[in-house]
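=== RUN LOG ===
request id: a7f3
mode: sequence -> structure
chains: 1
length: 244
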Amino acid sequence: MDFWIIGLIEQCVQPSNDPLIQNLKELVMTKENALTLAWIKLGALAGISACIIYPLMIAVEMPKQLTVACAAAFGPLLSLASVGLYHLLKLHQKTVTAQIATGANIIAGSIVNMMLVVQLAISYSMQDYLKNAGEEATKSTLEWIGKVVDKVQLGLDVSWDVFIAIGTLLFAVNMLNHPRFGKILGGIGALLAVLLLGFNLYFFPMPPANANLIDFGPFVGLWYFVASIQTLRSLTWAKDLLEA
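=== RESULT ===
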């Protein structure tokens, strides 16, 4: 929008190399560069936080309120991390695939938020119902209902895997020729994304882990952790490029 306004002013004020126009251009560029750097830093920190929160929530038994808070935070953090990663990637080359990857990961962040919240709601509610159930027949009925309702979060699980796999694949493709990521990190990300998507679709609705197969989700998470650290390490490179 700022550049559109300057273009309009340039058409009305001649010559275009007027000092006022040049100062406005420099001001807009400074604001845009600062915003880009802020997004890259925020994205990197959000990505690192998300990659710590998710395994911590699974591996460590925490109070209910803290567990819910971590579950609610993971999706938004993933979305923010993806926007930050896009801003770093676009400094080298703006592509439609990087934009699609960002959109896919933002959707993935929304779906995983729903999935985790539904999981916790079912789990905590079922614990209370079973605790208050007096007869064994009632408990058996509740357990059967729980198994049926649990299929809802399994569907959300696959949905989130589809979008995160698409986003990861396209981000990885854009990393292949990027000077701060390269072919190794990009190639690994692309392979993991294909495996994650393929296994989840082939064994649907059963998650690969439940079928005694490899769950590539944690490996994708580790890949994002490395990518987020590299994004944070690239701040100086991004600043130098923007100021050049």
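=== NOTES ===
The mean pLDDT is 84.
The chain has one domain: 22-243.
=== END ===
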